[in-house]
Structures are given as structure tokens and as C-alpha cells.
Amino acid sequence: FYFRLLFSAVLILALVVLQVSFVKILPSWPGEMNLFLVFLIFVLSLYGWKLLLLFAGGIGAVLDIYSFSPFGIFLVSMLATGVLIHFLSYNFFTNRSLYSFWGLTLFATVFYEIFLRLLYYLSTSFFSRGEVFIGQEYFWISLMKGVAMNLVAMLVLFYIFNFVSNRFRPVFIKG
């Protein structure tokens, strides 16, 4: 039990360090990728709901400690996104095909970004007059780039895991 918990903590820290110190400094499109969401979707599909909540809470807590945002914003956003992808995976995207993973990635990325910005806006608007992010062109362009890069990351990781294991099915629609 303790080894598994220590391994999970080291994996969370390594993922946060990779995202914050490497991915975020990449230029334009690749810099918008969110490895946390792709990782959480794979954790849900491979290990289940309980480990998803552990990793979502751990990633959110570490990001809250790292950032200068009001404490709890990343934790709540990650946990809410984890609950959403579990709900979608259990009720709508029930198979383990590439299309299911893409659908989960799309919904998780859009929900996470909007929910995170909404929480940040609500927490800062009490202290100062914050700008509404919905009307900003930069937000939507950044969101589209993030969705595209997360879908590409999901495609690559899906086929890597499919090559190593036969737990997933690359289903293609034939017309």
C-alpha cells in the first residue's frame, strides 16, 4: 500500500514538473497541451474511478501549491473534470475505442478550461474588477489549440498503449 502511494505521489510530481517546466514553454500549439487531462482519461480507462480521483486530487493540490491563484481552484477543477469524464465514460463513451477517447478528451478539455477560468474569474472579481473571459478571442483560440493538441496526444498515446497491450480497440467508422 505504501509503495503504491509513494509511486503515485512521485508520478504526480513528475507529471506536474513535465507539464509546467517543459510543455508550457513550448511554442504556440504544443504549449497549449494539457497532459493532466490525457493522463486522467488513461487512468480512468486502465485503473478505474478511485485511482482517477486520487490522481485528480493530487494533481490539483500540487498545482494549487505551485500557482499564485487562490488556493483550491485547480483542485476543484481537476476533481470536477474527473467526475465529468467518469460520468461520460460510464454513460456515453462505454467502449475503449479511439473515438471514445477523443470524445472524452474533447469534453474534458473544454469543461476544464471553462470551469477553471470561471472559478478564477469568480474568485478575483470579489477583490477587483476582472475581465470576462468568454468574450475574449484569445481564450477561444487558446482553447481550440489545446483541444487539438490534446487530441493529437491522445492519438499518439492510444496507439502506443494499443501496441503494448490489447486493452483498447482502434475502431474506424466505415462509410
Low-confidence stretches: none
Total of DSSP H or I helical runs spanning 4+ residues? 6
From the spread of the alpha carbons, the general shape counts as globular
Q: SSE order, as H and E?
A: HHHHHH
The radius of gyration over CA amounts to 17 Å
How much β-strand is present in the residues? under 5%
Output mean pLDDT. 86
C-alpha termini separation: 49 Å
What composes the largest sheet?
none
Number of E-state strands: 0
Description:
- The protein has 175 residues and is an all-alpha fold.
- It is 72% helix and 0% strand.
- The protein has six helices and no strands.
- It has helices spanning 2-21, 35-47, 49-66, 73-91, 98-125, 137-164.
- α2 (35-47) packs across α4 (73-91).
- The longest helix is centred in the middle third of the chain and has 28 residues, at 98-125.
Could you give a quick summary of the protein structure above?
The chain has helices at 2-21, 35-47, 49-66, 73-91, 98-125, 137-164. The protein is mainly alpha-helical and 175 residues long.
Task: List the defining traits of the structure above.
mainly alpha; 72% helix
What's the arrangement of secondary structure elements?
Blueprint: H1 2-21, H2 35-47, H3 49-66, H4 73-91, H5 98-125, H6 137-164
Helix pairs in contact: 1-3, 2-3, 2-4, 3-4, 4-5, 5-6
